[in-house]
Specification:
The protein contains 8 helices and 10 strands. A 7-stranded mixed sheet has the order 5-6-7-3-8-9-10, with helices on both faces. A 3-stranded antiparallel sheet has the order 2-1-4, with helices on one face. The protein starts with about 25 loop residues before the first strand and ends with a strand. The structure holds adenosine-5'-triphosphate. It comes from Herbaspirillum hiltneri N3.
Length: about 290
């Protein structure tokens, strides 16, 4: 589907109330029996129950139309559930952002301003917050360094490759120092080599920060390489069918190229591939509602 160029969300929650008592104390996000039916009658999500804990890297994997983007937009506060609740930051807080608990979103397109330099693009969300120049300068430098673009801060988007534009987009998100990073197929349009490199760099950034990531992808390989947990979804209606922790080497940090050709990696790919086959079969047959926990 077409992604819109949304500003960083500054939304208050639509409902205060008691959180699910089962929700764990370190939950950064929790979807509690979330349903979504769009105005045209499309039932995008059906009773999704999902919890994302602090420090996790969770990928949402599933066929086209299973509601991955819809769920991510609800996590960002850009869409409201038709039924159920989304909770942010544990039991008591039902708002998307507070000064010390923020989220940022990265879309499939880099969505950079073409007339502004890399540095100006990355600074934009900080300018919108009226941050002092000395502080924003430091943040921009740090973010550009993290994504390996520090030598390109004066460049304009048209002068950058697709991969570099995506790095700038990630830097713009990181400059806000988010606790939660939501990424909607950010590397889907890149060639495989660039994608693998960005995956490796993203994994490193995640492992070095106090950062929780929810990442939407169609790629089994990308999901296994990046994630501490992969949530598999099926369509019609969109729902979670499996929740697979990736407990392979490097779970606490770096995953190197050797991991990509290891038996553990292949094993996880096989498990996820079987679930995706099941997801596609259920699409054809009308669906079942059990969630597998691997
Ligand atoms: N604004 C909207 N209005 C109506 N229907 C929508 C809207 N956005 C998404 N949908 C529908 O909701 C369902 C889920 O869409 P969504 O984009 O969340 O799926 P997805 O898993 O992210 O798909 P893809 O991988 O192709 O991006 C699809 O049937 C889609 O056509």
């Amino acid at each position: 589907m077409k992604r819109d160029d949304h500003p960083m969300p500054q939304l208050a929650a639509w409902e205060q109330g008691a959180a699910d008592p089962a929700s764990s104390i370190d939950a950064v996000l929790s979807a509690q029996r979330v349903e979504k039916t769009y105005r045209n009658g499309t039932r995008a999500l059906d009773e999704v129950k999902l919890e994302i804990r602090r420090g996790e890297f969770v990928s949402l994997l599933g066929p086209s139309g299973c509601g991955k983007s819809t769920l991510l937009k609800m996590f960002a506060g850009l869409e409201e559930p038709s039924h159920g609740h989304i909770r942010w930051w544990g039991k008591n807080l039902a708002t998307v952002g507070t000064p010390d608990r923020t989220l940022a979103m990265v879309f499939q397109e880099a969505t950079l301003m073409p007339w502004a330099s890399v540095q100006q693009n990355v600074r934009l969300p900080l300018d919108l917050r009226h941050m002092l120049r000395t502080e924003s300068d430091a943040r921009v430098q740090e973010a550009l360094k993290l994504v390996g673009l520090d030598r390109f801060q004066g460049a304009y988007p048209r002068e950058l490759s697709g991969g570099m534009q995506m790095r700038a987009s990630i830097a713009r998100a990181l400059a806000t120092q988010p606790n939660l990073l939501l990424m909607d197929e950010p590397f889907g349009a890149l060639d495989e080599f660039t994608r693998n490199k960005l995956d490796a760099d993203l994994r490193k950034i995640w492992s070095e920060q106090d950062l929780t990531v929810v990442f939407v992808t169609h790629s089994i390989y990308e999901a296994v390489y990046l994630s501490s947990r992969v949530v598999v979804m099926a369509a019609r209606p969109g729902r979670v069918i499996a929740d697979v922790p990736i407990e392979a080497p490097g779970a606490g940090g770096m995953r190197d190229d050797a991991f990509r050709i290891s038996p553990e990696f292949m094993g996880y790919c096989k498990i996820l591939s079987d679930y995706l086959t099941q997801a596609n079969q259920e699409n054809l047959e009308g669906g079942s509602h059990d969630t597998a926990h691997h």
